[in-house]
Design brief:
Blueprint: E1 10-13, E2 35-43, E3 46-54, H1 58-79, H2 87-92, E4 101-102, H3 105-120, H4 130-135, H5 150-157, E5 165-168, E6 173-176, H6 188-202, E7 208-212, E8 215-219, E9 228-233, E10 242-248, E11 252-257, E12 262-265, E13 268-271, E14 286-293, H7 296-309, H8 311-320, E15 325-331, E16 334-339
Antiparallel strand pairs: 1-2, 2-3, 3-7, 4-6, 5-6, 7-8, 8-11, 9-10, 11-14, 12-13, 14-15, 15-16
Helix pairs in contact: 1-6, 3-7, 6-7, 7-8
């Protein structure tokens, strides 16, 4: 996660054609007493766009905007690896992690979910892979002048592994049998979405759409009674194209792909998604995977784990576990889309 220079959020009446920057598919006719208001701002090195269905109450909207910034600042201060003073960084900086390190309820919740998804995906999702991510130049450290050698990669990879982390529920704490560098960038953004959703619900907001860097959670319906409609992008690095549109109500959705964050060296493309088994960037044909879940933290982590696994393994797991998942695979003729049976009911076009 990147600290995003928090500043007061912007509040505006949402355009009927701009519910999301990546999914501009909002409704068009509203009841006069309620409108869709957008609260937006920078966070985690990206941006957030939050739509709430409310009457015209500027004081309440400003209160929500201030509260949202406080919630997101709290997540960043807890889970960012880009801040030396964050809760997570203070754990990572300990030379001896064998003693219990007290953590907040939020950080414990994320670590517990990370362990659950790591187990489910047979280690394809692993938050201890941070040192390998840094070695390839996708972390807070500067990008290396050359790709890692086999020796340096093997040495760093041998120190990682989620099984080296231990969690204690009461009081919440974490420790490691061997010093670890934990990177929550593949799950904390989803948690941030959930944290904002919980805040909105605590403030009595029943209908909303929360989006941070493409990860989304919705509740209720738009003023015209229709569901929130979201677009799944075509996995191309240039421009924005819609591959599929889904309709959601009280659900979350996240996408993981290799088409935005990558670099090229000596004619080879290196994805930011690292396979914890090999320590190398993924190189299979799966271009992107979208997952729908009850909460965005789960969807975020599953999408990353599935992206690491590749289409065949991930699809088999998603079908077995009845997980709504949508895969876009590269072929010689272009892109080929596949969806699990549980995903089909959400597709609108």
């Amino acid at each position: 996660m990147t600290f995003g220079m928090f500043r007061p959020a912007r509040v505006a009446l949402a355009s009927a054609f701009a519910v999301l920057a990546f999914a501009a598919l909002a409704g068009c006719s509203f009841q006069p007493e309620e409108k869709i208001w957008e609260i937006s701002g920078p966070v985690f090195g990206t941006g957030y766009h939050i739509n709430v269905v409310l009457t015209d109450d500027q004081e309440r909207l400003e209160t929500l905007a201030n509260g949202i910034d406080q919630v997101l600042e709290g997540v960043d201060a807890s889970m960012s690896t880009w801040r030396d003073d964050s809760e997570l960084s203070r754990f990572n900086q300990r030379t001896d992690q064998s003693e219990w390190f007290p953590v907040s309820a939020g950080l414990f919740e994320v670590l517990e979910k990370a362990r659950e998804i790591s187990t489910l995906t047979d280690g394809a999702f692993d938050v201890t892979i941070g040192p390998v991510v840094n070695l390839w130049g996708f972390g807070p450290q500067a990008r290396p002048d050359q790709i890692p050698t086999e020796e340096s990669l093997a040495k760093v990879l041998a120190t990682t592994g989620f099984d080296k982390l231990e969690l204690r529920e009461e009081p919440p704490a974490v420790r490691a049998t061997q010093p670890q560098y934990v990177d929550l960038s593949a799950i904390a953004k989803g948690y941030g979405v959930d944290a904002v959703a919980r805040f909105l619900e605590s403030e009595g907001v029943q209908a909303y759409l929360v989006e941070i860097g493409g990860e989304v959670r919705v509740s209720g319906r738009k003023p015209d009674g229709s569901t929130w409609r979201l677009a799944i992008e075509q996995p191309v690095s240039e421009g924005r194209e819609v591959n599929r549109v889904v309709a959601l109500e009280s659900r979350a959705m996240a996408t993981s792909g290799d088409y935005r964050n990558y670099y090229e060296s000596e004619g080879r493309r290196y994805s930011h998604t690292i396979d914890p088994a090999s320590g190398e960037p993924i190189a299979h044909k799966l271009a992107s995977v979208t997952v729908i879940a009850d909460d965005c933290m789960t969807a975020d982590a599953l999408a990353t784990g599935f992206n690491v696994m590749g289409y065949e393994r991930a699809n088999a797991l998603a079908v077995r576990e009845n997980i709504p998942a949508y895969f876009i695979v590269r072929t010689d003729e272009g892109f080929e889309a596949h969806q699990t049976p549980a995903f089909s009911s959400y597709v609108t076009q």
